[in-house]
Amino acid sequence: METRQTILSSVAVVTAILVCLLMMTAVPSAQSASTPMYAAEEISVDPEPPIAGLTTELCVDVQNPTASSETVQLEFGVAELGIGVSFTLVGNAQLVVPAGGKATGCVNWVPSSSGPWSIQAKLIITGSSDTISQRNLVMEESLASGVSYSRSFKVGNPTSSTAVVSLGLIPHITGWILGLNPDTLSNMAPGSEQTATLIVTPPANLPANGSTIVDVEGYVGGVLIGGFRMVYNSGAVTTTTTTTPSTFSIAGTIMGDISANVPVELLGDDNQIVDTDNMGHYEFPNLNAGGFYLIIPQLAGYEFDPPQHEIPNLMGDELNMDFLAIKTGPCVAKVIYGEESEEVELLRYFRDKMLNQTPAGQELIELYYQWSPAIVKVMEEDMEFKEELKELLEGILPMIR
After folding, report:
1. Domains within the chain, CATH numbers bracketed
2. How far apart are CA 132 and CA 121, in angstroms?
3. Fewer beta carbons within 10 angstroms: which end of the chain, N or C?
4. pLDDT at 353
């Protein structure tokens, strides 16, 4: 009885229980975790870069990890290349995304000028937060070794108060001289825009066509407000004699509390399950180029970080799809509803896709794992206590469906 009262009176435990309870229903997503939100691979633009006066098709792939089909609304917006800028709506689409599958929504748009644009896709689902992905790419053909090149872009303040916008560079290849002018924009009024310039000087040896050169990001108070990616484009696509492989491999390693004999499942355009070898390595060879793939390790008693890897468009070997295995104790929701229940699946998705994406959420998850064994032990000994927790679950689940 004393243990039961201690648990019920502990704010920390109540918070931990809520972590398990608030693992809400999975929702379709148009955002990949493998790339920044401003360089989304799930968005396609044809032709890219857009050409003035020529009809351009904007598309976005939407994945649905849930056990039932979902109807989603898509809004497509465009803006002059920039960071923190406002987007102009150019089209809408409605999709029915099948359970465990994907669907593609597209609209047509006629650009007023040629060159790089910022493209945005907003995914709207009733009862869930909107998801925003952007494809803000600069695909340069005019870069020459040792010659400085500049690209101007807009910087906006999307916040509701006057702010300082700080710009930063994330280089992806070595040997390039990179700079920003200015790198700080002070006293920007809400909704206002200014112009900044990216300056690049290529080295003697230019990279392969399609190589990412640099990401440019903007921050207000340490919070990312947007960015864009510069990609090298040789402009020699029509003269290349290289044949693109038709198949690629996905591979990785599981490390941590367990590595050998862990089942790893491949879903999407191919479905397979393999076990890791004694060193924790797994591989899925001969996968079709351009396919959508999910890689998910699953083993009772363990959680994995990240819970899955997502490859929206396989265009090369992906050999570093690694996972960290973490041994876990019993879960309150599993004891109440059962291991394979719909409720547990919905709650697990919320933990992985929502809570685990922020430091505060990760702390709550860790707190839950610390207290879960004690909570489960009391539930096994006290059915009334178990029913109280189930009633709490039943009251919260409808609010997050």
Report:
1. 1-24+243-401 (2.60.40.10), 43-239 (2.60.40.10)
2. 6
3. N
4. 58
